[in-house]
Amino acid sequence: MLFQEADCIKAAALIKSGGIVAFPTETVYGLGADCFNEKAVAGIFAVKERPSFDPLIVHIHDMNQLDILAENMPRAARILAETFWPGPLTIVVPKKASVPDIVTAGLPNVAVRMPNNRIALELIRHSGTPIAAPSANKFGRISPTCASHVREQLGSQVEIIIDGGPCSVGIESTIVSFVDKKPLLLRPGGVPVEEIEKTIGPIGKPEMNMYTHASPGRSLRHYSPRTPVFLGATPLILPGLRKGLLTFTPEPEYVISGFLVVETLSARGDLNEAACNLFAALHRLDHKNLDVIIAKKFPDVGLGVAINDRLIRASQPKRKGMYPFSEPIRQ
Ligand code: TXA
Ligand code: MG
After folding, report:
1. Given ligand 1 and candidates 73, 172, 303, which is best to mutate, with the most ligand atoms within 8 Å of its CB?
2. pTM of whole model > 0.85?
3. Per-position b or e across 52-88, b if 16+ CB within 10 A of its CB
């Protein structure tokens, strides 16, 4: 059943009493707790099976809450926040001493975002506290863009999952760090980098595998279906294998004929629509009992940059017994 105001009040009461709530945002569903309640935040790490070195984003509903969390904010950070909030942008800025270390994984900085989703904003407002929330999936797995994705991965462990329907952006927020002199892109996401640079000028853009230095959670393998993903233009001729295809726009018949399932993310070639459909398509492909998912690379502009980032990470090979996966590996 879709969300009603009363659900929000009930969920806020749970947050106030130290509980955990899954809730929609415009990017992906989040798994939230009172950011000042260390025990509740520890519960998020436990449910997600997330390593404690990977800090959480704190969600706020108005600008006053930013000042509870951050101090000595550079001007460019404030300009970016004022331009894109509420929206799919996260800023990393020096934290106030009162923000618990468990939230920031011991870092002196806090990641903050104001989501552009009525339910999320109401939940934070009724809770009377900023809400620390990672995406509501098991660590390393595909992010949830509707309530059923959350139920599937975390259902038995989360008391309240607020169903706000499908997420309108569908890919996580863009993260920009203001900890060093020059602003640094920690994760491409829902606000295209081009838009950010139009607002505050050029920012640093580390190579894929360098993200982890500044953002501990940006491990190379991430956003992964159980089914192995290959990224590239090759429609591999692999006889006998059950193959799925993930593409941007419709492919000609001779390309799709070798695939059992084809997911086309935007018939009209719109990268925003493609980003919105990405995770749901990966979830569907992962349910088809395929041997392999072949994903074609997207144009490297606008939200295509964030889509390629997720696909590159999803396609990193699993190594046997390798953290974070404990289940047997089919490969
Ligand atoms: O769109 C989003 O950002 C969603 C929704 C729920 O808001 N949240 C989300 O959270 O994607 P999560 O935890 O899945 O990803 C947050 C990323 C991680 O890579 C983490 O390492 C990084 O943000 N991060 C959080 N706090 C940080 C900090 N203080 N410094 C550097 N990176 C940080
Ligand atoms: Mg995540």
Report:
1. 172
2. yes
3. eebbbbbbbbeeebbebbbeebbebbbebbeebbbbb
